[in-house]
């Protein structure tokens, strides 16, 4: 089965006990594009990513990834994806290169060493690759984590909060990595709470709120959701943060006071 949508979700529902987290989510992501899934804490972003990566089954609705149904064809879905969770899954005792070789061997790659070296070059980690991961910065660790998930070159990549907890410099490094992947045609679905991250990286942005997608479009489209421009907006373009707070009905002053 072929589709131009790398990810397609219809009417997806999921509850934990009587807590309905996803209440009918529809979403499609074009092959080769970057989608940012935004939402507050507990909105259900990780739940959605877990369903798409076959770690969790949905209660209702359908989801396909790379043309394969997550419920009826989970093996094919897993062959098509890589998943990088919030906490780097790297072995601190090993060097960066050893981590990569280990993953390539686990995936039964016939030439694990050259797979590792290629990825180190691609992620600008050749020097660092000889050192133990315990000595890495957060950004290097996360880049290595993403590199490890790319062994085998899967067409669809899920990044669950790839830069949470990173300092600004490390965030920029991860952003470069995502741009590099997007440039090669990898479909990326990333979740984030950083609105500037979505602005920087995403072709399209979807906002998950109280179990539903309340917005889905390009940054320019989302900016049009704001009320007609008032004098307040004359000198400064609204940021995605303004749009986000407006559409989730949040009191901006309260948000600024609590910063
Ligand atoms: N295994 C579970 N059992 C019960 N409730 C859960 C479970 N996993 C998640 N939840 C609840 O489901 C809701 C959605 O959680 P989820 O982790 O998907 O949100 P999120 O958008 O990723 O949040 P965050 O931004 O904090 O990572 C939350 O209220 C959470 O407490
Ligand atoms: Mg989460």
TrEMBL record:
Q: Residues in domain ABC transporter? A: 7-235
- What InterPro entries does the database record attribute to this sequence? AAA+_ATPase, ABC_transporter-like_ATP-bd, ABC_transporter-like_CS, ABC_transporter_ATP-binding, P-loop_NTPase
**Cross-referenced Pfam families:** ABC_tran
What is the membrane topology here? Peripheral membrane protein
Q: Does the keyword Transport apply?
A: yes
Grouped into one coarse class, the protein's main location is membrane
Keywords carried by this UniProt record: Antibiotic resistance, ATP-binding, Nucleotide-binding, Transport
Q: Is Transport found in the keyword set?
A: yes
> In which organism is this protein found?
Pedococcus aerophilus
Protein name (Swiss-Prot/TrEMBL)? ABC transporter ATP-binding protein
Where is it localised? Cell membrane
- Similarity annotation: Belongs to the ABC transporter superfamily.
Give the Gene Ontology MF terms in alphabetical order.
Answer: ATP binding
Q: What is the lineage of its organism?
A: Bacteria, Bacillati, Actinomycetota, Actinomycetes, Micrococcales
Q: Which residues cross the membrane?
A: none
């Amino acid at each position: 089965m072929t589709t131009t949508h790398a990810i397609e979700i219809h009417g997806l529902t999921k509850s934990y006990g009587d807590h309905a987290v996803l209440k009918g989510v529809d979403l499609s992501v074009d092959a080769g594009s970057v989608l940012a899934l935004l939402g507050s804490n507990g909105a259900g972003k990780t739940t959605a990513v877990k369903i798409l990566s076959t770690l969790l089954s949905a209660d209702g609705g359908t989801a396909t990834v790379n043309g394969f149904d997550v419920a009826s064809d989970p093996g094919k879905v897993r062959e098509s994806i890589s998943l990088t969770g919030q906490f780097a899954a790297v072995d601190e005792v090993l060097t960066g290169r050893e981590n990569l070789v280990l993953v390539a061997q686990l995936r039964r790659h016939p030439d694990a060493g050259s797979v590792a070296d290629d990825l180190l070059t691609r992620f600008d980690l050749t020097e660092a690759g000889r050192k133990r991961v315990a000595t890495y910065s957060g950004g290097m660790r996360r880049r290595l984590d993403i590199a490890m998930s790319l062994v085998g070159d899967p067409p669809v990549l899920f990044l669950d909060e790839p830069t949470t907890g990173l300092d600004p410099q490390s965030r920029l490094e991860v952003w470069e990595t995502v741009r590099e992947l997007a440039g090669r045609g990898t479909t990326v679905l990333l979740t984030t709470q950083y609105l500037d991250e979505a602005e920087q990286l995403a072709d399209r942005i979807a906002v998950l709120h109280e179990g539903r997608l309340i917005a889905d479009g390009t940054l320019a489209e989302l900016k049009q959701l704001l009320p007609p421009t008032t004098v307040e907006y004359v000198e400064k373009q609204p940021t995605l943060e303004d749009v986000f707070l407006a559409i989730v009905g949040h009191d901006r002053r309260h948000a600024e006071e609590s910063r």
